[in-house]
Design brief:
The protein has a 5-stranded parallel β-sheet. The protein contains 3 helices and 5 strands, in the order ββββαβαα. With 120 residues, the chain is α/β, with parallel strands linked by helices.
Amino acid sequence: MLDIGCGDNKKVDLGLDARRTRSVDIVADARMLPSKNESIDHVYSSNTIEHFSHLEVGIVVVEWVRILKKGGVIEILCPDLRARAFLFFLSSSWQNVRNIYGGQDYTGNYQRCGFSFFAS
């Protein structure tokens, strides 16, 4: 199992991130994974996909699927932009600004796009 964008909070055995932290096993750009095609059985990513431009998201997901074994699982978690915007509407605090735009305390720690759940 590979945790893409793990930062300091690796959830599985193998963690990948663009910057070196104590949890990172592989330092690499998540847009160009250093893995062979169909080599990983489970791709997990939490709070990473929103750090890519909305123009890149499709390309990034295709890259993550490229390394996934046939029948494998891809699990992508991200913040709900609509919920975060609503919290900002209720309380326009700096914490709620950071929740929308990222902590911005190091290069790349900012959200470039957002996603929301829509029930049909």
